[in-house]
Amino acid sequence: MATQILVTCLNDSLNIPVNIEIEVFKWDTTQNARIPIGHDLFQIGPLASRSLIYALSSAAFYEVQSDYFSATSTIIHAYGIDSTGGIIQRVLQSEMIWVDRFTNIP
Fold this sequence. Notes:
By secondary structure, the protein is mainly β. 0% of the residues lie in helices and 59% in strands.
């Protein structure tokens, strides 16, 4: 079971910064409620990367929503991390499902 979510973001553009928005949710063990655990909006310069870690507790499963603006050479991956720091699940950007808009966070 994942205890953390690691999200890595890479701007592979040579000269254009990228604006990235990340939303992270977990479902509790009853699977009745989606609970927001992270919402970040940030900029990454050219040829730079940034990693974000979100803690999970009592999570049956989780969801990561991401979008980026400006640079077109942006890569975002999400990883489920267990209590020993090992990667137990990997979701590459090419495996993610496109959504037309983010979930509203109250």
